[in-house]
Structure formats: C-alpha cells, structure tokens
Amino acid sequence: MNTRGAAPKQDRSRATRQRLLESAVTCLAEHGWSGSTVTVVAEHAGVSRGAAQHHFPTREDLFTAAVEYVAEERSKALRALPAPTADTRAAVATLVALYTGPLFRAALHLWVAASNEPQLGPRVTGLEARIGRETHRMAVDLLGADEAAPGVRETVQGLLDMARGLGLANLLTDDSARRERVVEQWARIVDDVLER
Amino acid sequence: MNTRGAAPKQDRSRATRQRLLESAVTCLAEHGWSGSTVTVVAEHAGVSRGAAQHHFPTREDLFTAAVEYVAEERSKALRALPAPTADTRAAVATLVALYTGPLFRAALHLWVAASNEPQLGPRVTGLEARIGRETHRMAVDLLGADEAAPGVRETVQGLLDMARGLGLANLLTDDSARRERVVEQWARIVDDVLER
C-alpha cells in the first residue's frame, strides 16, 4: 500500500521540480539573472512559493540546479544531432543553431552572471568546460574531421568560437539574414581547409 | 573675472563627469549590471553621491551616458589601430584583442543587460550597430581586403564573429593559450581565402 501510494506522489514531486527548472531557464532567457527570482520562477511554473522553496530552499539552490539542467539539455541537443554529413553547409548551420536558441540565451545570462556572482562562478565554469569538450567532440564527428592533421583542431575550435559570437550577435536583434551568408561562406572555407 | 573663475570650475566638473563614466565602465566590467548602482559607482570614483546625482540624476542617465562613453572609447581604440599590415597573424591578433579587454567586458554586460532592460535596449542596440559597422570597415582596411571579391565581406564578418566568441570564452577563465593557437590557424586560413 505504502509504496503504491508513494509512487504517484514522487512522480508529482519530480514533475514540479522539472517544471521549476524549465521555468528558471525560461525566466533567465527572458528576464536575465537579476529579473529571475524564486518568486518570479514559481509564478511562471504555476507553483506556490512554498512548494518552490520545498524543492529549492534558496535562490542559489534553484539556479545551481538550473545550471545543471541547462547543461544536461545542451548535452541532449548535442546527442540528438544528425550523423556525419557530406553537406558541410548543413553541418555548419547545425553547429551555429546550437548558439541561437533560448537554451544558449539562458546559458549566456548564467555565464555573464557567473562572472560576478561568487556562488555561481565555479559551478558554471566547470559545466561550461564539460559542455565545451562535448560540443567540440561532436563538431569533429559531424564534420568527419581528422584531428590528427595539423590545424584541424584549431579550425574546428575557431568555427565554434564563431558560432558563439554569432549567438551573441543575435541577442539584441534578429541577425538571421546576415548569419546565413556568413554560414554559407565559412562552410566553403571549412570544406577547403578540411579537404572534404 | 567671471569667465576666468568659471573655466577651472567647468574643468573640474568635466573631470568629475569623466571620472564617473570611467568608474561606471570599471564597475560594469567587475560587478556586472546588477552590481553597478549609482552609489557603487560614486564610491569607486571618489565622488559624493550628491555630486554624482548632480551629473546624473538617475541610474538610467548614468548608464545611458556610460554606453556612449564605451562606444566612444571603442571607436578610439579602433582608430588607434596600426595601418594595414602584411602580417596577417598580427592583424587577426589585433582584431581579437578588441574583444578581450575590460572595454569589451563592460560592453558585454551592457549588451546582456540591454536584452532585459527596456530603458537600455534601443540605445545599446543602436550603438552596437554603429560600432559593428566601424569595426568591420576597420578590419577590412587592416587586412587590406577587397570587398568587391565574392565572399570577402562574409569572411571578414565571420572572423569578427569568431573574435567576439573568443571574447565571450575569455569571460570566466583565462583562455589566452588556446586563443593564440586559434588565432594562428585562422590567420593562415584568412591568408588563403584573401589570397594575401
């Protein structure tokens, strides 16, 4: 009886937690760090402030968990990418798209906040390093690049730096038309450098 | 008498204003938007809160002026760059350096804050567009690139996007060793594409 009754309650609790984390990310992307308080996030999630505090006693707890959640979701997005493709333009566009959605926007706000918030700093830095390594490995696979060849590693790194810069350029204005032309040209360049 | 007496007073006032703007930029780079209040900035500048409010009655006034100040300083940094050089590696390193100093860091905080602060948004967006155009023109000059040739414009744009991404990567950790290797490889690539 006890275990049967506990399961749905646990499910509900997990669902509430999940909803709070999703809302934390949405609020970060929309209102930035300073606009994302526990109260704002709880309201967005349709959860009482008390229930939110049951899961995350402090703002720090909530956003520490949100950082991990963002990292997990970005990992999932990486693993969901297509297999290596001969279409370099599609591969570069796929990589760049990782940096233009709401997940990157939330990560960017965390990133910038972490540079000034001692309680966020080390955790965000660690997770960014992990995500950076995963993204690089995935980019190498997607492009079918041979990292043993000189310069290939730095080419892929620079390409991801460019993708990050394009994401930043997209923060204040819709930069998609210009971005498309940059992607097209750099796909050509990467084709040449990697001798695809 | 009157005019002679007024001049030093005006000079002092200008110097105070200048000091407040410099401090606003330093505080932004060090503490981010949410940590940069008028009180914090006045204290950093060694100016009384009253004197600060004489120059800038509201936080909005102060940071609106600071945005323009940052734009002006970035413009000055651009105009101070060396003449066109045959050394592509030096040219790329010069461009990338524009995105790794405290001025970019302050601009980044403003940029991210502007995405959520309606009073900052349009002003920062307008100034970023102006600075973006100036930077592009300067990069073309520095590289001696011929924009009439197909793909050259997008090559330079992508290079500046990469520089921006490298600046962002440098926010939480010292990324200089990796950055140097990326700059070296991308200078080689740009050499090939621009047929320098």
UniProtKB/TrEMBL annotation, chains A, B:
One Pfam family per UniProt: TetR_N
UniProt DNA-binding region: 37-56
Signal peptide start and end residues: none
GO molecular function terms listed in the Swiss-Prot or TrEMBL record: DNA-binding transcription factor activity; transcription cis-regulatory region binding
Limits of the HTH tetR-type domain: 14-74
Coiled-coil residue spans: none
This protein's UniProt keywords: DNA-binding
Descriptive protein name: TetR/AcrR family transcriptional regulator
UniProt source species: Streptomyces daliensis
Lineage: Bacteria, Bacillati, Actinomycetota, Actinomycetes, Kitasatosporales
